[in-house]
Amino acid sequence: MFKKILIANRGEIACRVIRTAKKLGIATVAVYSDADREALHVKQADEAVHIGPAPSSQSYIVIDRIIEAIRQTGADAVHPGYGFLSENPLFAQALEKEGVAFIGPPVGAIEAMGDKITSKKLAAEAGVSTVPGHMGLIEDADEAVKIATSIGYPVMIKASAGGGGKGMRIAWNDAEAREGFQSSKNEAKASFGDDRIFIEKFVTQPRHIEIQVLGDKHGNVIYLGERECSIQRRNQKVIEEAPSPFLDEATRKAMGEQAVALSKAVGYHSAGTVEFIVDGDRNFYFLEMNTRLQVEHPVTELITGIDLVEEMIRVAAGEKLTIAQGDVKLDGWAIESRLYAEDPFRNFLPSIGRLSRYQPPEEGTQRDGTVIRNDTGVFEGGEISMYYDPMIAKLCAWGETREQAVKAMSAALDDFEVEGIGHNLPFLSAVMEHPRFQEGRLTTAFIAEEWPDGFSGVEPSDEQARTLAAVAAFINLRVQKRNVLISGALANHPRHVGRNWVVRLNGAGEFAVTVRDEGGKTLVGFDEDTSLTVTSDWLTGRSHAHFNVGGKRIGVKIQAVNSAYRLRWRGIDVKAYVRSPRVAELARLMPEKFPPDTSKMLLCPMPGVITAVAVKEGDEVQEGQALATVEAMKMENVLRAERRGTVKKVAVEPGSSLAVDELIMEFE
Question: Could you give all domains of the chain from N- to C-terminal order, each with its CATH number?
Fold first, then answer.
């Protein structure tokens, strides 16, 4: 077995590998850039080596710097994680030349399967069902349009060396094919140093389902069930689960056997994933093979009980698999939610900054028998950088059934506290609560279909509004009683807390309530016939608490905002004003404040670098026309005109670094 493993990666996956290495008694080495000097993976490793400036192109994907770190520390094996150098055959070759073990597949398999064009040809030869498409490289946008037309729209434009949703575009017409080709090339070049592009048919109403494979150096290969990865945004996976709510046993077996056949055809060993697209009739087509550990591997671990990182290490050390196909049992259901540093209210654009609060839910077995797991690479007070992928954590929930897993995930999201940056927690909660998701009726178009105009938050139902009003009334009563105790200690005359209050939830109605404590509980009455009993462990000043409202246990995030309480639960975000009846009456007469008019301005939606300005002052623009491109967190974001107009002023140029809401251009 190895004595020391260097992890050629960062963030949560580096921390994940360190955890298993420690369990096996293996020392670990972290590498870090300038931006990651204080990162969690650096703190957790036994040793750490600085490898260069913040941009990954000058640090994490520079092979010579990783090799030098290996020499400095005497590491005898390297785990590449995912992304960066994980599927770079030149890196695997450099390690082999150095006499250091690569905890991954053989170079030949990386070369064959890491290139999506070659992998499709090999898959077809191995008898694996493949998607129709153009397998050759494409030189320019004109050729891309010609090929797309011959295949038939819609088509998927993809980077040959791509992954993680980068360098991928769907085109429905010639114009989108032309623009998508160039954007895909740019993203592929920036992310992978390889701008080769290919095109394939885009299957409508598809599900994205992948098979986890595991092989050793002795010819043994097995599959560990499937993962449903259909909840995606811009081809970036957001929520994954195992098993799939759609597959039957026969389809699972057929997909698994094809995945194993392909793996054996290329002499594969280590952990890998064969991805398929599945239509509504359970016909499946090979997409690609990822010759590395997948981001979403924890859900497979939760339903199989197999530590995939441990298996990768043991296989790299020459050990045989200790399990055969017949030993693989799928137990229960697991769901993973990817917590991203991106603002769902700004079309999911990246967000950077300091995590002023970061408190994940409690991990391990819960009171109802479900299990919570959180893989993360950040900590409270740490920085989210603009240089890397925006993923903060992978929150996982396991239950005996899918329904239990979904409920456990919803509760865990309620308990997850993140402040200081924009993040997608409200959106993840909204997905969990969506009836279509709960029924398992998924496609890769789920997000686009259910939120076609973008995500603007969750509107509470009548029942949910009453629940939050009761919570606000409970909190207010505790605050008022605390104030009475303080004032009573300072003054000679006692104060009393009234029973009648008016709770106003911004955008969700107003409730006249009566509130009183009785027998260790708080009773919140809404009318003569309706009341809710509330108990809680909340103490004044706490930012999160559990409440039992009408017999239902919920987790609510609480923040005092001027004269209101900001309450967040199940994706709902409201300000609750609790006032006496007279003050509430006067408050209704107050004029409403409106934000300043920015309708004639194009503001930078997130911190980033302007890579292109498509118009100049005096130009007339049409609705939907590209205006400028902003790059942040390795993704290109094209900003488009919302309506017709004339450009009055352009305030930036390519190369400009902008903060959020900084002016890009102004219109007449």
Answer: 4-103 (3.40.50.20), 132-201 (3.30.1490.20), 462-587 (3.30.700.30), 601-667 (2.40.50.100)
